[in-house]
Amino acid sequence: MSEIEPSVDPQNCRNMTEVRAGVDAVDRALVALLARRFGYMDAAARIKTDRAAVRDEARKAEVLANVQKAAQAAGLPEEPLVQLWDQLVESSIAYEFAKWDASRS
User: Fold this and answer.
1) DSSP characters over 38-74
2) Model confidence pLDDT, tens digit, residues 48-97
3) If pLDDT is split at 50, 70 and 90, which confidence band does 27 have?
4) Which Gene3D superfamilies does the annotation name (predicted)?
5) Which domain holds residue 62?
6) Is 60 labeled as ligand-binding?
7) Per-residue confidence band for 7, with pLDDT thresholds at 50, 70 and 90
8) Is 96 annotated as a binding residue?
9) Which of 24, 48, 25 is nearest to 104 (CA)?
């Protein structure tokens, strides 16, 4: 798994160049993590034998509750992160449907 590239810690930034370099490094790390997450969607599409199993509302609710708890524990705004994850989960579901369909056509 990818680590965040060395950069100045946010509390030590002295100028916008350092801030932007840090943000860019975090963005690259997030894309690498999302690639891994979508790899799990590939695995799910391969493993699930029934197309109806792709959308699992109970699991979606669990994921969103986990994000809300993690945001709260980290002192981050819960609602925007839950909204962001809702979009991520919906995109993941659409991706998994496409993979599921492609692998069985």
Assistant:
1) HHHHHHHHHH-SSGGGS--HHHHHHHHHHHHHHHHHH
2) 999 999 999 999 999 999 999 999 999 999 999 999 999 999 999 999 99
3) very high
4) Chorismate mutase
5) 10-103
6) no
7) confident
8) yes
9) 48
How many folded domains does the chain comprise?
1
Is residue 3, in this structure, part of any structural domain at all?
no
Cβ-Cβ contacts under 8 Å for 1 (sequence gap 6 or more):
32, 33, 36
> Tokens 């993590």 belong to which residue?
33
Is position 14 annotated in a ligand binding site?
no
Q: How far apart are CA 89 and CA 64, in angstroms?
A: 9
What tokens were used for 62? 């669990």
8-25 pLDDT tens trace:
899 999 999 999 999 999
Q: Tell me whether residue 36 is annotated as binding.
A: no
pTM confidence score = 0.90
| Burial of 12: CB neighbours in 10 Å, binned 0-12, 13-18, 19+ | exposed
